[in-house]
Every structure is written in C-alpha cells, then in structure tokens.
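New to this. Please check this record:
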Amino acid sequence: MLCELSVTFMEADMRYEKIGQLPDAKFRRLTGVKPQTFEKMLEVLTYAERKLRRRGGKASKVALSDRLLMALEYWREYRTYFHVSQSYGLSEGQCYNIIKWVEDTLIKSGAFSLPGKKELLKSDMQFEVVMIDVTESPCERPKKNRSVITPEKRSGMSKKHKS
C-alpha cells in the first residue's frame, strides 16, 4: 500500500508537467483558462505563498501548479472533493483547504474578477444578443375556498373544547 501511495504522489506531481505540454486550444479545453492566464494565476499564487511562508510553516507536498490545476478541475468539472482527493492522493480535507486557499488568494488579488453590472452599463458596447429567462413559469394550484375551510376549523375547535 505504501508503494501505491508513493506512485500516486509521483503521478500527481507530474500532472501539470504532462498537461503543460498540450497545445493552447487543448489546454484551455481541459482547464477552462488559456495558458497565459494560468501563468498569471500561478504568479499571484507564488507571491502569496512566499508571503505566507515567510512566517514559517510546513511546505505543501503538492506543487503549486498542481494545486492550481486541482482548483481549476474542481471549478470546471464540478467534481466533488472526494473525486479530486482520489486523483491527487490526498484527503478530502486537504483538497478542500487547497482549493479554498487558491480561490481566496485569486479573489483577493483582484486580477481575475469580472466587471460589475455598473461597469457593463457604462461601456459604449452595443449588445446584439438578447437572453430571456423562461425557466420560471407559474404553477397552477387549486384556489382555497374560505367558506369550506373556516367552518371545518370552527367545528373541529368546538368539539375539542366541549369535551
């Protein structure tokens, strides 16, 4: 079993090395981001980890590029922490902590946020696509008839109180 775990860690460490060799289109198809965006994310995470490690602490067993790849897989494929943990040979808790740290760090950097609604309204861009949300449709439910419900409640109450 110890051999199996070490092989799993070796395969996990080599994940980005294998995926990084893919052409740009296939890399984006697999991860959901362009290789250039991946490198920018990696720079932000590298800076944040250096800042974090200045205070001390144990280094992670998983390479930073693989941790970013783990988070991208989680977001892109809607995989559970269990599935991600099995792929990387880690526990579910470790996967949760890694993905949460990557997410929080990228959000705090502000480099990867989408423009807000006000920003989109300010722009001079002309939109040609109109989207209509038709998922909400009213349900027809039977109407409550007050004359039927009220006497039943009253008659039920009067029977209980008379006893």
